[in-house]
User: Which sequence fits this backbone?
């Protein structure tokens, strides 16, 4: 892709590769109740600086920032973390952000640990969909992989979310030792619960500390495994849904599966996303560390125009794509939220 030289602010949400931003992912906390081996294991904790509460954006600050993005054209908002459900008052936060004019899709990524209790109130507050992380269906392995997790709670959370009327997708990071022999079972289980299964290629974060390419299962290998067990995969009618997954169908279009092939078949050319950390750092790309602090502008009494100028400058500087393989970012997935 070639960088265009557009004047700053021509359209603050069109980047210099003519990509239009429509989707904002907001990490609402950097805390997580799980310690997944491939994301934030206990032994990496001392490298992670957990932010004090005073550093985290308040609900009022989040509402204001989301309002600015929505006025500029953002239509989809995903709450993530850390673990978003451990943010105190998360149901109220959803209700408030759901009322921001212009936001059409309000969704969440969660580990599901608290979802059995929260699914109905979250749905009633205006949440439309959840992505729930389920890396293995073996309870003992699940515990080992998540450090503190409880598979039965998560599965109950998925069932509660479906019953509450939330659209549900499952996320499994495809790693040989965790779920290499469970790809088909993870699909069958998700479908049986009324969810759409998805697989994510492992990405190197945290300076690559947890990344070993040989452990990862590529999108092509995932497709091969699924096809040999389930029959041909056909590209879904809406192959992309405004997010990073590519969707496939099996069983004559009756069942869907998504694959997020960030490493082997990346999708940077049509990236439509920005990411905001819990402390208000705006990241234009998951794979690079550069960020712009919107919190500094908010807390220095900046105007909405000041926020727009900062957003426009971040969008203009959005890189052509990630360089995960050559130069992994230092930031941690738990801090940025995936
Ligand atoms: N705590 C929530 C959860 O578990 O879904 C939200 C945050 S978590 C960082 C978001 C997603 O990123 C999860 O599905 C998780 O499995 C995935 N993830 C974490 N580290 C990853 C990595 N290095 N590469 C790819 N996906 C990763």
Assistant:
């Amino acid at each position: 892709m070639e960088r265009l030289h557009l004047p700053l602010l021509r359209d603050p949400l069109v980047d210099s590769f003519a990509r239009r931003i429509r989707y904002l992912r907001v990490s609402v906390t950097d805390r997580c109740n799980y310690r997944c081996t491939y994301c934030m294991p206990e032994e990496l904790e001392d490298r992670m600086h957990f932010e004090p509460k005073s550093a985290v954006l308040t609900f009022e600050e989040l509402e204001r920032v989301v309002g600015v993005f929505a006025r500029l054209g953002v239509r989809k908002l995903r709450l993530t973390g850390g673990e978003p459900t451990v943010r105190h008052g998360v149901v109220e936060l959803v209700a408030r952000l759901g009322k921001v004019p212009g936001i059409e899709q309000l969704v969440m990524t969660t580990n599901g640990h608290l979802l059995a209790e929260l699914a109905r109130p979250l749905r009633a507050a205006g949440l439309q969909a959840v992505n729930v992380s389920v890396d293995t269906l073996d309870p003992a392995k699940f515990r080992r992989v998540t450090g503190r997790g409880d598979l039965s709670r998560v599965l109950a959370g998925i069932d509660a979310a479906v019953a509450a009327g939330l659209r549900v997708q499952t996320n499994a990071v495809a790693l040989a030792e965790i779920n290499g022999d469970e790809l088909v079972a993870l699909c069958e289980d998700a479908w049986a619960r009324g969810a759409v299964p998805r697989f994510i290629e492992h990405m190197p974060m945290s300076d690559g500390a947890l990344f070993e390419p040989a452990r990862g299962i590529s999108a092509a290998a995932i497709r091969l495994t699924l096809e040999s067990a389930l029959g041909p995969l056909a590209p879904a009618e809406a192959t992309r849904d405004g997010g990073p997954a590519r969707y496939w169908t099996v069983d004559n279009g009756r069942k869907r599966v998504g694959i997020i092939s960030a490493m082997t078949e990346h999708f940077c050319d049509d990236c439509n996303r920005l990411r905001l950390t819990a402390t208000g750092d705006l990241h234009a790309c998951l794979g690079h560390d550069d960020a712009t602090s919107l919190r500094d502008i908010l807390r220095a009494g900046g105007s909405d125009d000041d926020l727009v100028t900062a957003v426009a400058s971040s969008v203009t500087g959005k890189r052509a794509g990630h360089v995960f393989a050559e130069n992994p970012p230092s930031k941690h997935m738990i801090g940025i939220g995936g």
User: Anything to note?
Assistant: The longest strand covers residues 167-174. The mean pLDDT is 95. Residues 288 and 329 are 5 Å apart (CA to CA). The two ends are 24 Å apart (CA to CA).
